[in-house]
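User: For my dataset I need records formatted as: sequence, then structure tokens, nothing else. Please produce one.
Assistant:
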Amino acid sequence: MNKRKYSVLFYVPNLIGYMRLLFLITAWIFYDNIYVFLPFYAAAAFLDGIDGWAARMMGQCSAFGAWLDVLVDNVGRSLLWTKLYPLWCIKTHILQLLSTDENHELNILTRDLHTDPSN
């Protein structure tokens, strides 16, 4: 495939998104240790504000990046819910899925698949 088509995966804001995902998973694993959980969760929350700013400043805005940002936000909330309410995790996860506009996220992603990546 075309290298340029996949270059969006390596945009700086998307790399920040991947780091956020790793930080959130690490925070979730070490939820019972506040000295590990808090710095990783705080770093992920801080980077949530940085990735959008970086995308605009570097001219690296993309539908994939917008989708990734929402995905990481939803994963982070879901992971936190499973620790805060372990007996209710399935119910809260279902409520969260019902409260998000999944169709909007899918439309953004599929729209980008059919457009020129140089835009």
